[in-house]
Amino acid sequence: MNTPLLQEILGNASRTDTNLDGSSSFKAQTLNFGLLDEYSKREIRRAILTAVAVPGYQVPFGSREMPVARGWGSGGLQISLAIVGPDDVVKVIDQGDDEGVNAVNLRRLIVSSTGIPESTTPEDSTLIQTRHRIPEDPLDARHTLVLQVPVPEPLRGVERDMRELARMHAEADYARMWVSLYEDKVRNGVITRTTGYPCLVNSRYVIATTPIPRWDIPRLHQSEFLSLFGAGREKRIYAVPPHTDVEPLTFEDVPFEVEKTPGAKCRNCASNNTFLVEVLATDVRQSYWVCSDSDWCRRHRELSDSSSQGLMT
Amino acid sequence: MSTNWALKIESLGKIHGIPDLRSLEDTGPEKGTAKSALTGSIVAAWDVSFEVAPGEALGVIGESGSGKSTVMRCIAGDQGSTTGAVRLRTVHDGHMNVLDLDPSSRRHLRVADLSVVYQDPAEGLRLNVTAGGNIAEALTAAGWRHFGRIRDRAAELLDRTEVPLSRMDDLVGTFSGGMRQRVQLAKALANEPPVILLDEPTTGLDASIAAGVLDLIRNLLEETGVAAVVVSHDFAVIEMLTTRCVVMNHGRIVESGLTDRLLEDPHHPYSQKLVGAARA
Ligand SMILES: [Zn+2]
Fold first, then answer.
1. Does the distance separating the beta carbons of B147 and A253 come in below 8 Å?
2. pLDDT 10s per residue in chain B (280 long)?
3. Which of A56, A75, A76, A232 is catalytic?
4. Distance (Å, whole) CA A242 – CA A237
5. Residues 228 to 267 of B: which have CB under 8 A from any A CB?
6. One domain, residues A296 and A214
7. ipTM for the assembly
8. Main-chain phi, psi angles of A201, to 5 degrees
9. Which chain B residues are closer than 8 Å to A185 by Cβ?
10. Is A253 inside a domain boundary?
11. Are residue B44 and residue B62 in the same domain, yes or no?
12. A264 and A242 together in one domain
């Protein structure tokens, strides 16, 4: 655990201070709800509000030291802890998996600092923190998706100078992003970029949809749910509010296509219309595909198991 | 003077340092310096006026330090200016002084209203991008979104500037100096701008290569009907490309007129010196 933050919070907890709104606060001998102090929450919420008001714009925020290493979901965690309420149910996935080590650690942290229930099923959840995936189940207005972002700057590959980057976004000057897609297509015959595909949000700002696969991109477009992107190391928050256009940058004559391997299906649930990942074996013939979304896969396996059992009886 | 201009420059001035007008008193051709002893400022260019008609090429000639590159950079927007006006026919029919535009709108003029070809290709091109990709940057900036049409247009432009199509997908950094200038020309013409500025476009190239590039530029200027400003220290370049020119010395225009006549019968002592050196 990160000591400076804990000391600060513990220090706060043992004092009785005056709150920002002037009221005297009662501090129990426990950590603050959601770990962050109220001041930090307010600052992060303000950044989130700005991000929602200006879809796709990267809002700087004073990223806190978190009890996870920066780059291990600290940006997403700060968003989750700033917006979580006592009525929320949290789900955390890493690469689609609720049982990944990082997912488990982050979920444990959120649950232990808030006392809210957890779930692996999107249907039962309200706050979903994720690295690299959007759950396969359709999400709706109840859900807030919090995405952990390592590199928030979509133009990083074409420009390094911070001032020039700021200018390009301010003027919506994305010609060089188009050039990088052009060069990719010229060099490889196809646009090879798979994860973190650059998208134009609300016809204005280009974002890095980092780093979810192409498969998930269409689900951000005109979605029912709010998506919040948090980069802890780079101290940026950006958002895709519900009912917002999210268009992958693509040439008129080069259609955007999601990943699809002909003939591939999940070894566990037999699905061929989910995002599949290949499990490689030393002997290529023994390699196989499984759903990246492990919770979806488990539920559909049970479903097919029970229906086939039903057939037998 | 016709009113049919594509580009008009009015009393353009650029002072480096404190823009104290007393600097004008002890600078200029008669004083033999652009640096004011009075104020310490440098009067890089002052009271520069000219206009260029569509299809016309105007030369700006002078030695290094004469202010010709300052004028070019002030028109291009690469450098701020102290005073004066720059008007483009395509911007509010010339009623707008583009120097008054905010930096963003000013930069946007470079997409389709005004192109620049620099002496150093690295200023106008990205060397780590292919020849086609460099042209694609100009086209996508102007809103082109169809890959096939971008390819066709880039090929057409490279063909026109005599770059072998087999090199279209090679990085510009692997090209020779002469070839880079041809790609820079192709990119500059991509969106058919009404005005193009050429800053020492062949300086630094071998004589035989330079001759080929000059030939190409002359043909392109004739074919496209673009209004051009050619900045050079070399009367041979000015003679080949332009019909009118202005001579600059210590930040001021000392003589202007038809290029042929000016070469035959220069009036100002500085012009005489330049012509003499070119003829020697
Ligand atoms: Zn499955």
1. yes
2. 457 999 999 999 999 999 999 999 999 999 999 999 999 999 999 999 999 999 999 999 999 999 999 999 999 999 999 999 999 999 999 999 999 999 999 999 999 999 999 999 999 999 999 999 999 999 999 999 999 999 999 999 999 999 999 999 999 999 999 999 999 999 999 999 999 999 999 999 999 999 999 999 999 999 999 999 999 999 999 999 999 999 999 999 999 999 999 999 999 999 999 998 888 7
3. A56
4. 16
5. none
6. no
7. 0.92
8. -105, 130
9. 147
10. no
11. yes
12. no
